[in-house]
Write a structure and sequence with these properties.
Elements (H helix, E strand, L loop, with lengths): L10 H7 L6 H11 L2 E9 L2 E11 L1 H13 L8 H16 L1
Helix pairs in contact: 2-3
Length: 97
């Protein structure tokens, strides 16, 4: 696989990388109706992370967003810090008008 990030690839490579989106609806069904998607809560105690048995069950839009985000990792779909800061600057400038 090419080491380029998703946004810099040609359309054929992008099309190939979209294959990581195919299992999302199946995973969504699995985690919604068969086995819940648990996210465990950790606590900070005396500056250290303490793992607990408490968890939240992800459902609906939150579950879908997590599954899409996990699929974008292997796709190498990410933004550079320059792109992020440019978008923040644009949104701040648009908000001041």
């Amino acid at each position: 696989m090419s080491e380029k990030r998703f946004q810099e690839c040609n359309w054929l490579v992008k099309l190939w990388r979209y294959r990581f989106y195919i299992p999302i609806p199946f995973k969504y069904f699995y985690y919604s109706y068969i086995k819940p998607f648990k996210v465990y809560r950790d606590e900070f105690v005396d500056g250290e992370i303490n793992h607990t048995d408490n968890f939240d069950v992800m459902k609906g839009k939150n579950l879908w967003s997590l599954l899409v985000g996990s699929a974008q990792g292997p796709m190498r779909w990410y933004y550079t810090s320059d792109e992020v800061f440019d978008n923040i600057r644009k949104s701040v400038l648009d908000g001041k008008k």
